[in-house]
Amino acid sequence: MSEDEIYMQRCLQLAANGIQGARPNPMVGAVIVANNRTIGEGYHVRCGQGHAEVNAFASVKPEDEALLKDATIYVSLEPCSHYGKTPPCADLIIKKGVKRVVVGCIDPFAEVQGRGVEKIRQTGIEVTVGVLEKECQWLNRRFFTYHSKHRPYIILKWAQTANGFIDNQGKALQISNEQTQMLSHQLRAEEDAILVGHTTESREHPQLTVRHWVGPNPKRVVLTHQRPLQQLIDDLYQQGIQSLIVEGGRQTHESFIEAGLWDEIRVETGAMTVSEGTLAPQLPTNVSLLSSEVYGDNNIKRYIKALE
Ligand SMILES: [Zn+2]
């Protein structure tokens, strides 16, 4: 790893702390380095409050202020150039007079999109863009999908028996264990909305709330025959929903897969078997395995779309 990558890695670590508080803003981390020493760090804690850059500058000790003229500020996402709830970070960086700015990735938000970098460059400050770019984009995959595809980031999620059934002759099955249940609730606390199909809704009346983790409940959405999928997705976009977990039955999942409306698939497989039931949805052909983790007798495989 290069020095730039090491500090950008630290920005990513800091940024991830904002997973619950920052939204609908992106998670962003910033590190200020002078003479090979970190003199300031910060991340975007909560929407409406200071951005990562503001918090990083605020953490610089008075005796280190004089070092700023030789310092480099690392930011995982392009500094903003517009007046939102707070003034533009690009202006703050220029005012602070740092020597160099290193940016992880460009902000896809329509009001920024390169303008932050451009504004800083025009003053003669050196700007490097694209350090750990893929990692920086992945961290804010919900935000990126929302702003570039105009729909939420969609996670399809189901649990199946060892022999590939999702229920027992139409009756709900408890496949998840204590550990994976906690993970499911963590996921719910981190995503904006959760959807079930009308069959699951009327058969199981699932609560779809966060009980085994601490955090907000996701917005509850039910897919009915009266609501075509694309219309529903457009509505969620209009409502500012950046991510959606789909915990449907086979039909619901397959309608998302057929429409190409998915970004991630999480399949939990338990050790139990049943002799008859509803078969798990068919995985699309264009998947690439992202991770495979074991939790007791269960495992969770995560898939993303394979690169075309
Ligand atoms: Zn900003």
Key structural traits:
seven-stranded mixed beta sheet, binds zinc ion, 10 helices, 308 residues, five-stranded mixed beta sheet, alpha/beta, elongated
Provide structural commentary:
The structure is a single chain. α8 links the parallel β7 (193-197) and β8. The relative contact order is 0.12. The chain is built from 10 helices and 12 strands. The protein is α/β, with parallel strands linked by helices. The protein is elongated. Bound molecules: zinc ion (ZN). Zinc ion binds at residues 51, 53, 79-80, 89. The site of zinc ion has 5 residues, from loops.
Order of helices and strands: HEEHEHEHEHHEHEHEHEHEEE
Strand order of the largest sheet: 8-7-9-6-10-12-11
How much helix, percentage-wise, in residues? 25-40%
What's the N-to-C terminus distance? 28 Å
Write the layout of secondary structure elements.
Layout (H helix, E strand, L loop, with lengths): L2 H14 L12 E6 L2 E7 L8 H7 L13 E6 L11 H8 L3 E6 L9 H7 L4 E4 L3 H7 L1 H9 L3 E8 L17 H13 L2 E5 H7 L14 E5 L5 H10 L4 E4 L3 H9 L5 E6 L17 E9 L2 E8 L3
Parallel strand pairs: 3-4, 4-5, 6-9, 6-10, 7-8, 7-9
Antiparallel strand pairs: 1-2, 1-3, 10-12, 11-12
Helix pairs in contact: 3-4
The protein binds zinc ion.
